[in-house]
Amino acid sequence: MNVETVRAVCAHDCPDMCSLLVRVENGRVVRIDGDPGQPFTAGFACAKVNRDAELVHSPERLRTPLRRVGAKGAGEFAPITWDDALDEIVSRWRTIMAESGPLAVLGYAYSAHQGQINRGLVNGLFHALGASRLRAGTVCDTCCETAWDMTVGAIGGADPEAVADSDLVVSWGADLVATNVHFWAKVEIARKRGVKLVVIDPRKSRTARRADWHLPIRIGTDAALALGVMHILARDGLCDRDYIARHTYGFDRLEGEILPRFAPERAAAITGLAVADIEGFAALYGNAKAAFIRLGEGMTRLARGGEALRAVALLPGVTGAYGRKGGGALLLTAASCELDYDFVRKPSGPVETRTVNHLRLGEALLELSGPPIRALFVAANNPAVTCPDAGKVRRGLARDDLFTVVHDPFLSMTARYADIVLPAATYLETEDLYRAYGTYYLQYAPRAVRPQGEAWSNVRLAQTLARRMGLDDPVFQMAPAEIAAAMLRGARGRAAAIDPERVRNAGPIRLAPEGGQEFRTPSGRLEFYSEQLAAHGQPPMPDWRPDPDEERDAARWPLRLLTAPGYFQSHTAFSGVEFLRRREGSPCCMLHPQDAHGRGLADGQLVRLFNDRGSVGLILRVSDEIQPGVVLVPGQRPDSETGAGTVNILCSDRYTDMGEGATYQSTFLDVAASPQAE
Q1: Beta strands in 296-348 (DSSP E)
Q2: What are phi and psi of 406, to 5 degrees?
């Protein structure tokens, strides 16, 4: 028997980016463990990644390229060879580009593979071709990133491992048990020495249930709570005036113009919290010396999400926690890993060209002209499920004159609309350079096993298509290890100190900052007042005000949507593991008993969620985990499980206040018994 243990890195879309030890027997993955030599992974992998041997060897994997033989969306395909598939793709692209120009082509890879080369090189291919470019990430993090940049600057936040020095932890809009389990483990260690955990979340999540204190805030009122806390800190002399004077910009204006409107009574009326709870939390936070706020991205996926993030991210500046080890706030860390990403993502091609917002892919496919999109390529993404207004995306994908290619390990909902489907390698079948976005590590990892069936990596596919399309950029000829070395040779900041020739065998490399939080804003300070926002006609200081469109929709529809990652199906990438599907249970929605009983609905009943955009069928769970007036839908589940669409069909494609991001949580709807159950 041939047995080996391979040191790999988890490439799922998760902030932890775990180092893994993969046991391989006779070319087959049989066990996955967390690497005890990586301090953040600390020897354990999450319950999902523990089953990734089943992902790699799933009987549901695509084995060969496929050509569509039925209607788009029907999922009817016939096997073809790789040469036939590549010949057809290149022939169609060349014809379309000759007739309509390169802007008629749109191609991208997104977040299902977090390797910097496998994700970046596909985008580099289309950049070099001069195609239309997807502004990726607007479905996820552009709102929170923009708000952070307008406040702290384009730099990572607090080191999550510094929670060992914290004297208070606040999980604000983050379900750590579901999405950040290795940070949760660090928090649990801190709690053993008496550190309190406060969870601020509309939902009584697993993290909230285990916390010392849960503050069940109303959806979309985070800014009001943060400003209310600042009001109390200023009132009670709990501001660090010296830190404010030396390291912040504009607090005097916020204190004089905004904070007087957020007395505890008004903050309570907006957030639904008791005045005593707001006062108590402010006192707890203000008296802590090294309070650590873990920020969740979900609070920004609504109309005024940017203002919410700004308000909360400013709190550590009021108390001076940004200047102390163990204090501050953490949203993301990726901006502090300054590799030469352009080497992979922008090898050649025009500096500027037409862009398509990721969350408005459906609109682009249906309405864009001059020229229209005639060819679409999708890798490491499932937009027919994950994009808002998913019904519009599907109508665009159903166009008979759209030539679509999907590269995926499984026959996803998006792949069902493709003309050509190509089998993709999973992360354990690829080698890559990995940069975490929720901790400060960089690591190169080899593949653990050969690709199953006829699967190809994104790198192999991008390089093969580049050569066939006549591109001669060096990156399309290089091995992954050579590309990684080139990205490091052009690196800046702490990454510039890494020896490019040794990274392949270096294991996890720690890039954590030292000292207090650095600010990369125009003023070089934490910005309570943003001149950048003012110059663009946006509110320069965080505030809270009702959104007119939300008020209009709330007057028509009695329930507000809350989406959250599932504990075993956080992304559709995990849907290929049958065991995890069973652990998650049937695709469901959740109502408070008051709302369920008022509609004559019972736990376990098949119901439909509906608004003007459509309807979705789910199993009802009745629980006090959520508040009255809210319907929770956990996880992103394929239609094959629900039988009646994805909840994102009900979400509009309107923009957030910053970063042109998605507004999933600004969705209003109702729930009724499904006709199928009657």
Answers
A1: 328-330
A2: -125, 130
Tokens read off for 439: 């901790």
DSSP 370: S
188 is written with which tokens?
A: 């649990």
Q: Which pair of structure tokens corresponds to residue 591?
A: 């109502």
Is 0.90 topped by the overall pTM?
yes
- Burial class from Cβ neighbours inside 10 Å (0-12, 13-18, 19+) for residue 213 reads middle
The answer to whether the CB of 467 falls within 8 A of the CB of 476 is yes
- pLDDT surpasses 80 at 638: no
For the residues of 460-522, what is the DSSP string, one character each?
A: HHHHHHHHHTT---GGGTS-HHHHHHHHHHT--GGGGGS-TTTGGGS--EE----SS---BST
Give the pLDDT score at 45: 93
Over range 564-574, report the average pLDDT. 76
Q: How many of the other CB atoms lie within 10 Å of CB of 557?
A: 17
Looking at this protein, which amino acid is placed at residue 274? A
Please check the confidence at residue 621 and state whether its pLDDT lies above 70. yes
Q: Name the DSSP letter for residue 573.
A: G
Phi-psi category of 604—alpha, beta or left, where left has phi over 0 and alpha has psi -120 to 50?
left
Give the model's pLDDT for residue 677: 53
Question: Coil, strand or helix: which one is 633?
Answer: strand
Taking residues 282-303, what's their average pLDDT?
97
pLDDT tens digits for range 27-45: 999 999 999 999 999 999 9
- Looking up tokens 């285990």 gives 210
Binned at pLDDT 50, 70 and 90, residue 585 comes out as confident
3-state secondary structure labels for all residues of 182-223:
HHHHHHHHHHCCCCEEEEECCCCCHHHHHCCEEECCCCCCHH
- What is the sign, positive or negative, of the torsion defined by CA atoms of 476, 480, 486, 490? positive
In whole angstroms, what is the distance from residue 76 CA to residue 23 CA? 36
354-383 tens-digit pLDDT:
999 999 999 999 999 999 999 999 999 999
State the Cα–Cα distance between residues 278 and 303, nearest whole angstrom: 24
Report which residue type is found at 537.
G
Q: Which helix (H) or strand (E) holds 548?
A: helix 548-556
Looking at residue 572, what is its pLDDT?
A: 73
The sign one gets for the Cα dihedral 286, 287, 289, 295 is negative
- Rounded to 10 degrees, the C-alpha dihedral 457/460/464/470 comes to 120
Query: How much is the pLDDT for 542?
Result: 98
DSSP code, position 540: S
Q: How far is CA 340 from the centre of its chain?
A: 22
